[in-house]
Design a protein that fits this description.
single chain, 284 residues, two-stranded antiparallel ribbon
Length: 284
Amino acid sequence: MHPWDAIWLFFILSSLQPVVQRYLLASSRRRMLGSIAKQRDATVITLIHRQETVSFLGFPLMRHIDIDDAQTVLRAIRSTPPGKRIEIILHTPGGLVLAASQIAKALHDHDGEVVAVVPHYAMSGGTLIALAADEIVLDRHTALGPVDPQLGQYPARSLVEVADMPGQHNDQTLILADVGRKALVQVEALVVDLLGSNERAAEVAHLLASGVWTHDHPLMAAELERLGLPIRIGVPVEERLLMDIYPQPRGREAAVEYVPQRPVIPGAPPGRDTRRRDAQAARG
């Protein structure tokens, strides 16, 4: 083989490598989803957003819930027979209220059990979708968040309060405040509808949708339990493993690394098993 042929072959194989890797990763995801669906006897849907990179510039952008996501999720819900369980796995910073509302309403109206599994976080629109489920499965430090509407970069609640302050306000502030008032009412009414028979639906909806907290305030298991939401602590192993095959895009260096430790004996204080083995060795 001529050296130039080897060089060209190298470049061709290098260019094909990302395509092959994406195909293998997609195949792994489908096998894992199929396995979970079989174990749970359910339609399993994922709504997972990782950081993406734009072109060759390398600027990280966070993906979010958009209309394309809503269209695909609604198709999956419509294809699920009545009475069949749906499990939706959420890992997202949120996104468009319209898209998240469509998904949440479709899940709420499904004739069958709906379970939302949140391995790490589902903020804003992700929380809105989780509220539509009959059960939310999460871990002790998983985070959900407030669902108060945002108008561009501004919280609707803040715009309303600024417009109500004494003094002159420009037309844009007054218009945004008017839209903000409507958005707050609309989202709160949607949450009340999603919570359905929950006796604290109105109270919880007001807390989540009216801007009581900052929009990025994490609501973890203890607070969610106090709100009376239908949560269950303990994300199954299979769903955890699934997250491992949704890696960050290539070219992004891992910021955290660790060396796994050997399993700890349940119920034994740290170091107890080590002292026991040392004592046995000394007697031997």
